[in-house]
Write a structure and sequence with these properties.
This protein is of the alpha/beta class. The chain has two domains: about 170 residues, Rossmann fold, CATH 3.40.50; about 110 residues, GMP Synthetase, Chain A, domain 3, CATH 3.30.300.20. The protein is built from nine helices and ten strands. The chain is globular, with a radius of gyration of 20 Å. About 40% of the residues are buried.
């Protein structure tokens, strides 16, 4: 009988290279917000993959970027902080790069310091010619002895088993750290906050970029008159300015309604129960430098 393996795998890379999309693909469930914007992931989110002979715990980290606020500093600290306590690193880069840029070189230096087994994932290969891809592989392999290099397009599911098989090869014998039915260590409250924030980022486009923070203040499971389970959820979207508040609410409350409806549909699908969602918008200036809020994003 094949021995059971387990381990922790960090997904690391610059902002907007497709880390969260890759995590959701590998886990087969939506555990991370995926928006085509930089700095979408703010905390180290865990996704759990249970296979016949292994349990793989993925940690999706915030993208590496230049910090401008305390929140940004904590995000970067989180990304590099996980490298010391994991078994395998998935280093995600974009196929469109011609060389190793400053951001990727900084990550490589941290990988070298950690000296962990690392798999290089080259994402978005559908956007480049084969010779460009071969050149990129060559320059990266000269920098670090990667266990393997896997070129992918993260939107295609066919890469899922290839990556999982390669990771499983690198893991040591070990126990299942989480229940075999679980796919994330996030609470439903955290998943609800992430879902609302993701929908806000999608619908608000670039008008209110990343100056929002969602807090679920009430989440109560109750029975409807027909005896069905339903969550009553009350959430507040905090923003940095009064002008942002107006944009989030929208004309006649239409934007906030759209965000709420879309988040509710997603949550009902993910949680498997009906959702009654109420959302409010409040201004909280400089929350990105407020320790009482920023501390919530620190690695635990």
């Amino acid at each position: 009988m094949q021995e059971f393996k387990s381990g922790f795998v960090a997904i690391i890379g610059r902002t907007n290279v497709g880390k969260s999309t890759l995590l959701n693909l590998l886990v087969g469930e939506k555990v991370a917000a995926t928006v085509n914007k930089v700095q979408t992931t703010r905390t180290a989110i865990k996704g759990i993959v249970n296979r016949k002979n292994s349990q793989i715990i993925f940690i999706d980290t915030p993208g590496i970027h230049k910090p401008k606020t305390k929140l940004n500093e904590v995000m970067i600290e989180t990304s590099f902080g996980v490298l010391n306590d994991i078994d395998v690193i998935l280093f995600v880069i974009e196929a469109t790069s011609q060389e190793i840029g400053k951001g990727d070189m900084k990550i490589l230096e941290k990988i070298k310091e950690a000296n962990k087994k690392t798999i290089l994932i080259i994402n978005k290969i559908d956007l480049v010619k084969k010779e460009n891809l071969l050149h990129l592989i060559d320059i990266y392999q000269k920098e670090y002895p990667f266990e393997s290099v896997i070129p992918i397009s993260s939107i295609k599911g066919k890469y899922k088993e290839i990556i999982l098989d390669e990771i499983e090869k690198q893991l040591e014998k070990g126990p299942a750290y989480y229940d075999l039915e679980e796919y994330t260590d996030q609470t439903l409250r955290q998943l609800a906050e992430e879902t609302i924030r993701e929908k806000a980022l999608i619908y608000l486009q670039d008008e209110v970029p990343h100056g929002i923070y969602v807090e679920v203040e009430k989440m109560k499971l109750k029975k409807t008159q027909k005896g069905h389970e339903m969550y009553d959820i009350e959430a507040t979207i905090y923003c940095l300015r009064d002008s942002h508040k107006g944009i989030i609410i929208g004309k006649n409350g239409e934007m906030l309604k759209k965000i709420g409806q879309s988040a509710r549909i997603d949550m009902e699908k993910n949680f498997g129960v009906k959702i009654n969602l109420k959302t409010w918008v409040k201004v909280k200036k400089d929350w990105q430098d407020d320790n009482s809020i920023v501390d919530k994003f620190k690695l635990t």
